[in-house]
């Protein structure tokens, strides 16, 4: 059932928005009540708000200012994504970032933790947040944050991959927490982040790479152009001949993510309703093959 939903673009979009809601629930109900800190950009926003409230004496308001600040800091990253990533991904990125920031802002943080034991609350929050993050990513979207910056640095030839950048940034973040607060705050925040990451990897199936062979009698350059321009993938084609009919056939070969197949199939049926394709999963790909954040 989940696989069918992932191949339906409207349902996939709604699932991504639901994931952004679950992420806000995990943070506001299980992490923030214990004065713990999330990872990445939102963890930084939490830290800034704590410093404003406790160190500088700025009074808190009814809304969660960390959610508002998270949206503000995401604005330059959204412009960066617009310049470097696919158009569909950016549109979904904006929708999920706005919705996640809104949910983080309006979902009230309990004054008394729902789960009193801090370790248990970290585990529940980490598992729920990991599921939410994995669901959003699997649907071909993102809730913003440092993944965009890490992907940008990687695409520019930096030695930082997205994962390495995230680990380095969070190490600095929790070191600051250790210096400003205490060891338990930094330790339990790190435990939450570890469970978040582990569970997200279990759910996230976006980078399942497949090989697609398309057989068409229509020599329309629009289909290869769509694959290259809209999907950002390379395509190879050759001339073949049908054994039964003896008709000339064009065969296109492209490697892409499993969840880009839906877009390719729609374009293919629009350009040549009689064409068909074969999908081979589990192929191993190396060399110059970019891993799209949205694929």
What do you see in this structure?
It is built from eleven helices and four strands; from the N terminus they run αααααααααβαββαβ. It has a four-stranded antiparallel β-sheet, with no helix packed on it. Helix content is 59%, strand content 10%. The protein has two domains: 2-203, no CATH class; 209-281, Alpha-Beta Plaits (2-Layer Sandwich), CATH 3.30.70. With 295 residues, the protein is an alpha+beta fold. The model has no long low-confidence stretch (mean pLDDT 80). The longest helix is centred in the first third of the chain and has 23 residues, at 9-31. The chain is elongated, with a radius of gyration of 22 Å. The chain has helices at residues 2-6, 9-31, 40-55, 65-84, 87-106, 118-138, 146-155, 162-180, 183-203, 222-229, 261-271, and strands spanning 209-216, 236-241, 248-257, 276-281.
Summarize the structure.
This protein is an alpha+beta fold.
Radius of gyration: 22 Å
Structural class: alpha+beta
Tell me, what's the shape?
Answer: elongated
Mean pLDDT: 80
Spans of at least 5 consecutive residues whose pLDDT stays below 50 are none
Gap between N and C termini: 20 Å
Q: Quick one: biggest sheet?
A: 4 strands, antiparallel
Helix and strand succession? Answer: HHHHHHHHHEHEEHE
Adjacency order of strands in the biggest sheet = 2-3-1-4
The number of domains is: 2
Helix content: 55-70%
Tally of individual helices: 11
Residues in β-strands, percent:
5-15%
How many β-strands, per DSSP? Answer: 4
